[in-house]
Amino acid sequence: MFTKERVVFIYTVSPLHMGAGTALGLIDNPIQREVHTDWPSMAGSGIKGAIRHALAADRRVEEWQPCGD
């Protein structure tokens, strides 16, 4: 179990929406939130995907491949 925690603020230069993937009521893509505090959250996998996409768009960087493949 983690014993330390840190709040991190990420400033984006373009619009960002981390959706929860569920459709409830009139909002078809609610904002992803932390369960206990109801604070907006960003899953690590979403951040990783955004970074991977940005690097793949840069032609100077080869596409990332998992080890062993």
Structure characterization notes:
By secondary structure, the protein is an all-alpha fold. The chain contains 1 helix and no strands. The mean pLDDT is 72.
* Sheet having the most strands: none
The number of strands is: 0
Q: Low-confidence spans: pLDDT under 50, at least 5 residues?
A: none
Mean pLDDT: 72
Helix % is 10-25%
Tally of DSSP helical segments: 1
In percent terms, what proportion of residues is strand?
under 5%
Structural class: mainly alpha
Distance between the termini: 31 Å
- Along the chain, the helix and strand elements come as H
Domain CRISPR type III-associated protein: 10-67
Organism: mine drainage metagenome
Keywords: Antiviral defense
Pfam families: RAMPs
Can you summarize this structure?
With 69 residues, the protein is an all-alpha fold. The protein contains one helix and no strands.
Descriptors for this entry?
20% helix, mainly alpha, 1 helix, 0% strand, 69 residues
In terms of topology, how is this protein built?
Layout: H1 44-57
Domain CRISPR type III-associated protein: 10-67
InterPro entries: CRISPR-assoc_RAMP_Cmr4, RAMP_III_fam
Organism: mine drainage metagenome
